[in-house]
């Protein structure tokens, strides 16, 4: 009995070993809701690569990025494919933790023309290495409450003709709807203006040579601050600070907001929890003043430490360049596809039920094509923080625009040695 | 002793008993030292090393570059660092002082007048201390809300009352969005949280004061206030020293309450940006690990210096004054 048992064990062990040699298990590290996109993609991927098993490790948004930072700095624990949000891609591109996808055998450059134009530059480090593949994007949109607008006799086009007309029409909307606000926070207008109309070779806060652009002499910053200040002074904003703050959420849920600027993905949040009761009352338009901006986006990267780079690249290719998969991802979470071909799918010309059947996806598709790439700088997070602080001192009236911008310039220059 | 017949058989059985006697205690106590080495000493040493390097976390450990004292001079010439230190000091004072002014009378009352309900009172006041800080901050966030908060609703309702109505603001106050109110709002949450903890410290102090002193004082005709003033307060000094030292250190390391109440931004005019918050921002948002490490050592020096001052001013008279 004993030898037979031992023999069986040995046999099964060897078959297991052979199976392991044939098949490979790769690990994907991701965050919600992107993890549900990956899980939805796995059956299709399995058909193409029956020998590759994919394990998805998911952590909360911030935890995931912290864990990946640690994994990249220590050289272990990152997995074979990692999901990276737009806000972190610049930081992750520093150093040599991620594989350069332009190089052989990946040659990611061959796909460039198939993607929405501004995504590739976002994933490219200053030295030219491309550290990730884009998967979804967030074309900017102005959402508005059609019922509030009609009560004030204001047409959506009046709101988005220019920033001046946005404020003028906004006054009428707020006057006609007591207790309402035109926009969650005046600072949002400044953020959009700062990100549009950039000259070629200009980043948000630094030019190509690393020179600080923030200054009281730079019309882009002066205008952004001026418009935001006008909105605040007219009492049009709810002073809610950033998106997803409790003040912001409550204003949405109570139906006190007339407009909001955000990525197209906001509709998903609105219909699921944020403004469930206002279905059919919201509409979408382009951003004011013919501006186009993006709100976030996600990428996939391969860490240098991965032992299964070929399989990892196969999965990334499948997730990002496969049209059917990108359409499926859009249907799963509503995140806009970065692959241009995917947005010609019939689903994009269908009306959005939450927006009263409006064919808003066509609008977003066009907006995505017009968004300009913005050069990133290593010190962008520092400059952004300092500029935001300066903007807040202007909005609360403790400093005038020139002083605030001059001080911000000094503070940023100090850091950018 | 080694030649005693009772020991020699054990010695003959080999080194096992000898080993047990000599080394086993070290093995039993080793988990503490191992954990301390890994999670205590190593991070401190690594942090000290890091404070002399320029390093972006995420680039890999090989990318460190020695920069001498530059991280320290960078911090010392950074206006935001000084502002964060000032914010921290103001918040520590604004939240620290009232804690003790409230906790001492409360403890005295709990030990005396409220004696029969002492456990209930202690439990009620101690509850905030053991509640999750995230839950606390989220609730206060809602209470402080400018448009929809209960605090503003209550103040507005009070301002409508006749006679005393004028004492309360009729306009809604943007507690967390206006520079003047950010620090008081944060301090209020901190006070609320730590009063119970300090009360417990003082209560145990009061209970260690011999009852005969109070009895003798009563016989001599001392009032309750006199007993508090001339017996309780002087004899509480050692406990006060401990409690104030803890508040000082805790107050200078303030992080969670301001971080959550201001959404990590530091609030209007950066009035809620404490040094630890700025350190975290430098590391996590600016990816500047070396500067952040240097900042932690500078804060350590400040805390160490102030604790030393506190020790000299308060500790000496407090601890030595018992004779």
Automatic annotation (TrEMBL), chain A:
Q: Which residues form the signal peptide?
A: 1-19
Record-linked Gene3D superfamilies: Periplasmic binding protein-like II (3.40.190.10)
Report which superkingdom the organism of origin falls in. Answer: Bacteria
Keywords carried by this UniProt record: Signal, Sugar transport, Transport
The record's section on InterPro entries has:
Bact_solute-bd_prot1, SBP
Q: What protein name applies here?
A: Multiple sugar transport system substrate-binding protein
The record lists the organism as Deinococcus budaensis
Automatic annotation (TrEMBL), chain B:
GO CC, sorted alphabetically, is: plasma membrane
Q: How does it sit in the membrane?
A: Multi-pass membrane protein
Keyword Plastid set for record: no
Q: Which residues form the ABC transmembrane type-1 domain?
A: 85-310
Give the main localization category.
Answer: membrane
Fetch the InterPro entries from UniProt.
MetI-like, MetI-like_sf, UgpAE/MalFG_permease
For this entry, list what GO says about its biological process.
transmembrane transport
* UniProtKB keywords: Cell membrane, Membrane, Sugar transport, Transmembrane, Transmembrane helix, Transport
Keyword flag Transferase = no
Where is the protein localized?
Cell membrane
Q: Which domain of life is it from?
A: Bacteria
Transmembrane regions listed in the UniProt entry: 23-46, 89-114, 126-146, 181-203, 235-255, 289-309
User: What does the similarity note say?
Assistant: Belongs to the binding-protein-dependent transport system permease family.
Specify the protein name: Multiple sugar transport system permease protein
């Amino acid at each position: 009995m004993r030898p037979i048992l031992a023999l069986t064990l040995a046999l099964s062990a060897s078959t297991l070993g052979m199976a392991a040699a044939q098949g490979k298990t790769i690990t994907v590290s991701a965050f919600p809701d992107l993890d549900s996109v990956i899980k939805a993609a796995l059956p299709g991927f399995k058909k193409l690569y029956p020998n590759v098993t994919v394990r998805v490790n998911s952590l909360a948004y911030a935890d995931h990025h912290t864990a990946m930072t640690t994994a990249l700095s220590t050289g272990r624990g990152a997995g074979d494919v990692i999901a990276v949000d737009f806000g972190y891609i610049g930081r992750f591109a520093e150093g040599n933790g991620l594989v350069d996808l332009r190089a052989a055998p990946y040659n990611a450059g061959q796909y460039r023309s198939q993607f929405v134009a501004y995504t590739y530059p976002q994933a490219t480090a200053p030295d030219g290495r491309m550290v990730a593949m884009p998967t979804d994007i967030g074309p900017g949109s102005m959402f508005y409450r059609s019922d509030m607008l009609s009560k004030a006799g204001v047409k959506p086009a009046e709101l988005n003709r220019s920033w001046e007309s946005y404020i003028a029409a906004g006054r009428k909307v707020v006057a006609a709807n007591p207790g309402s606000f035109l926009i969650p926070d005046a600072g949002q207008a400044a953020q959009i203006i700062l990100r549009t109309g950039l000259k070629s070779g200009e980043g948000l806060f630094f030019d190509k040579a690393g020179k600080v652009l923030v200054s009281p002499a730079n019309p882009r910053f002066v205008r952004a601050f001026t418009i935001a200040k006008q909105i605040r002074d007219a009492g049009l904003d709810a002073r809610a600070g950033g998106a997803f703050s409790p003040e912001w959420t409550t204003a949405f849920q109570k139906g006190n907001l007339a407009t909001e600027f955000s990525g197209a993905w906001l509709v998903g949040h609105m219909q699921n929890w944020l403004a469930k009761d206002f279905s059919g009352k919201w509409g979408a338009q382009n951003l004011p003043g013919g501006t186009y901006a993006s709100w976030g986006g996600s990428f996939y990267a391969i860490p240098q430490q991965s032992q299964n780079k070929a399989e990892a690249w196969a999965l990334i290719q499948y997730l990002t360049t496969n049209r059917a998969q990108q359409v499926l991802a859009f249907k799963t979470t509503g995140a806009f596809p970065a692959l241009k071909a995917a947005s010609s799918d019939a689903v994009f010309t269908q009306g959005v039920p939450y927006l009263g059947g409006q064919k808003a996806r066509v609008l977003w598709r066009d907006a995505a094509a017009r968004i300009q790439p913005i050069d990133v700088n290593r010190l962008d997070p520092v400059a952004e923080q300092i500029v935001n602080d300066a903007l807040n001192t202007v909005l609360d009236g403790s400093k005038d625009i020139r002083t605030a911008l001059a001080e911000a310039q000094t503070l940023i220059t100090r850091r950018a040695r | 002793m080694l030649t005693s017949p009772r020991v020699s058989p054990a010695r003959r059985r080999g080194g096992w008993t000898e080993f047990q006697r000599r080394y086993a205690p070290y093995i039993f106590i080793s988990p503490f030292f191992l954990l301390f080495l890994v999670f205590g000493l190593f991070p401190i040493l690594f942090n000290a090393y890091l404070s002399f390097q320029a390093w972006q976390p995420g680039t890999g450990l090989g990318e460190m570059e020695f920069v001498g004292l530059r991280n320290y001079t960078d911090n010392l010439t950074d206006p935001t660092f000084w502002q964060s230190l000032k914010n921290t000091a103001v918040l520590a004072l604004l939240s620290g002082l009232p804690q003790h002014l409230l906790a001492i009378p409360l403890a005295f009352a709990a030990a005396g007048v409220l004696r029969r309900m002492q456990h209930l009172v202690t439990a009620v006041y101690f509850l905030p201390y053991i509640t999750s800080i995230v839950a606390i901050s989220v609730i206060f966030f809602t209470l402080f809300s400018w448009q929809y908060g209960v605090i503003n609703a209550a103040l507005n309702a009070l301002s409508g009352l006749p006679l005393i109505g004028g004492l309360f603001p009729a306009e809604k106050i943007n507690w967390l969005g206006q520079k003047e109110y950010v620090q008081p709002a944060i301090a209020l949450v901190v006070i609320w949280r730590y009063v119970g903890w300090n009360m417990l410290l003082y209560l145990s102090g009061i209970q260690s004061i011999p009852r005969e002193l109070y009895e003798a004082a009563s016989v001599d005709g001392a009032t309750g206030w006199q007993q508090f003033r001339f017996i309780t307060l002087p004899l509480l000094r050692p406990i006060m020293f401990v409690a104030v030292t803890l508040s000082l250190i805790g107050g200078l390391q303030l992080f969670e309450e301001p971080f959550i109440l201001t959404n990590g931004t530091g609030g209007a005019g950066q009035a809620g940006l404490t040094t630890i918050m700025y350190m975290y921002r430098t590391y996590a948002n600016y990816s500047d690990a070396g500067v952040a490490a240097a900042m932690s050592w500078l804060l350590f020096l400040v805390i160490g210096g102030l604790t030393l001052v506190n020790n000299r001013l308060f500790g000496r008279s407090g601890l030595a004054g018992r004779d």
